[in-house]
Structures are given as structure tokens and as C-alpha cells.
Amino acid sequence: MLLLRVLGVVGWVGLLGALGCAEEEAPPGGEGGKGPVGPVMLEPPASPEVGWQFDVPPFEVKLGEEIQDCYFFEVPYDVPTYVHKITLAQNEGSHHLNVFRVKTQKDLRGKHGDRVLGGECWKSINWADWPLVANMQSAGVNPWQLPEGVAHRFEPRELLMVQTHFVNATSQVTPLGGKATINFERIADDQVKHELGTAFATNQSIEICPGQKDKRFETSCKIARDTPITIVAANGHFHSRGRRFTMAVWDPFQGASESMFYESKAWNEPPFLRDLSVVVPPGGGVSYACEYTVPPSSCGDPEKECCFTFGPKVEQNEHCNAFLYYYPRRPDTDVNCF
User: Fold this and answer.
1) Beta strands 242-251 and 285-292: pairing type?
2) What is the dihedral of CA 118, 245, 33, 86, to 10 degrees?
3) Residue 211: pLDDT over 50
4) Is 296 exposed, middle or buried (0-12, 13-18, 19+ CB in 10 A)?
5) 106: containing domain
6) Mind listing the pLDDT tens digit for each residue in 280-296?
7) Residue 311 near residue 317, CB atoms below 8 Å
């Protein structure tokens, strides 16, 4: 049985009337870059007309622990709402912070105000059809302003899920405990020209064993249908054996382009590239690849000859995940490639 804890709305979804917005335009370490050691602070939007805030209260991450929890909350409006800026803030030690739209609820279940502690929150198959809203892996305050005229559309009281993952072990440390806060800032309906679409792709056919060097895995994810799309932001994700993550446009007739638009060599704080303008042809998508090196002395799963296979745990598993944001969105173009 899932362990669900119903928390009060106070301290979770804040429509606080504090004056002024957060000092987030120039986060420490550069926009989208390394933030402070912590703890992070983020003022909420000035009023419900401006936007709203979701706050994950501080929690302890003991030495040797990995904590991944899922928080459910509703968009706090009774009319369709457009959001043109999202700011994600989190303490040092975060492995990722993801936001999803809740669709089919399988073994991971929740309603407004629920928190699922670990358990089914570790299993990605539970959110296989939940469209991505936003993601971030960098510590500190990370504002993201969408391109002019582009916005997320949220339905009245739409249910969302925030997933936090903090690690205090060999590969990462969480010196001041876990904490995350997200601001959603609105835009007037008549200023919206395109809805933002998203894609979350994960290559689960991964196995890297001790002593292997520069082992590469590549796959593709179809995004566009019968019209072209434009990718405006991208982020890659793997664990500490990862050495290089790349993305390129995939054409249904010509295959992967030789010109990549994304590259990361940092596993713990990979770049979140924004202000892209990458056109994907009709029927196309992206090709993404991950390269890994495993020292001979490392051991992932002892039951699999110490190899590292796909899974959520930083210390014993590996990932190859691509996060993509594009326009125009259609109801059939929010994509999950598993």
C-alpha cells in the first residue's frame, strides 16, 4: 500500500500576497547555472493575477540516503490559465526536479495535497503518459522565460505532480537537506500565439559494465506529426558514469542530422539550453545519444555482474533521458518516448 500523507495547503500551494517578485533575474553563478549552497529562497508572485507558487517544505536527507517523493497539487484557478514563465529553485544535492501533468493514474496515485513517499514514485512506468511541464537539475534559482507569444496552457483545477530527488551519498551530497519551490507566472490569453508542447524521452536499454569505456547508446523519439515544430529548449540527463550527452534533429527520411543542437559533458548539473530555434520537419523528432565510462573497480548491481542498468538510483543505476520543449503544441503531440 502506498504511503500517502495529506499535507495542509498552507506551505504547499501559496497564493500569497507578498509585494514584489523574487530576485531571480540573475541567479548566483549565472542564469540557469550553479546556485548557492543553500537553502534557496524564492518569493511568491505578488498576487493570484500574477501567478502562484508551489513549495516543498525542507526535509532531512541523511547520509547515505536517496529520497524521491511525488507531490500532487491543482492549478488554483477555475478558468483556463496560460503561464509564460516558470522559476524552479532547489537546494544543493538535488538530482532532479520534474513537473508533470497527471493523466492515467496507475500504482502512483494522488489528489490535491497528497505526497507519495518513495515507493511507487520511483517507477517511471507509473507516469508513462503524463506530459512534462518543466524540469531542472541545477541547484539555486533557475528562471525560464518562454519565447514571446508562447505559453503553457493549464485547464481549470488541472492536477499536476512535482517530483523531487535528493541524494546524500558518494556521488552527490545534500548538506542542508532537501527543499524546492516553483513559481508559475501568468500571461493574458490574448498575448498567446502558440501553446508550448513537451517531450520526455528515456532510453531504458542501457547496460554498462565495469571496465567499459566510451560505450554509446543512441535512439530516437518522434515528436512532429504532419506539420513542423520548433524546439525552444532542451535538457539531457544521466548519472555519474555518463560522459557525453548529445541531441540532433531526426528526419523520417534522412535519419539523424550531423549537426547536433545539444551537448552536455556534466552529469550533475547538465546545461538547460533555452532560446533555441531548432526546426523539426513533419514526421520528425530527435535523435539522442549517451556515452558512458565505468571504472574497473565500480559495481552497480551485484546480481548483474556489477553492471549498471536502467533505473532511478544514482549509486547503482544509469539513465539516458531527454527533455524537450517546442511549439506549436497539439493535443496529440505531447510525447513520452519510453
Assistant:
1) antiparallel
2) -60
3) yes
4) exposed
5) 4-188
6) 999 999 999 999 999 99
7) yes
Last residue of a domain, which of 134, 167, 188?
A: 188
Cβ atoms of 101 and 75 closer than 8 Å: no
Location of C-alpha cell 560522459: 243
**pLDDT on residue 38:** 54
| pLDDT for the residue 332 | 67
Confidence of residue 12 (pLDDT cuts 50, 70, 90): very low
What are the tens digits of pLDDT across the range 120-148? Answer: 999 999 999 999 999 998 888 999 999 99
The CATH number of the domain holding residue 132 is 2.60.120
Cβ(109)–Cβ(245) under 8 Å?
no
CB contact at 8 A, 108 and 121: yes
Judge if 182 and 203 occupy the same domain: no
State whether 242 and 121 are in the same domain.
no
For residues 181 and 55, the answer to whether their CB atoms sit within 8 Å is yes
Contact, 241 vs 294, CB < 8 A? yes
Residues 113 and 243 in one domain: no
Which H helix or E strand runs over 166? strand 159-168
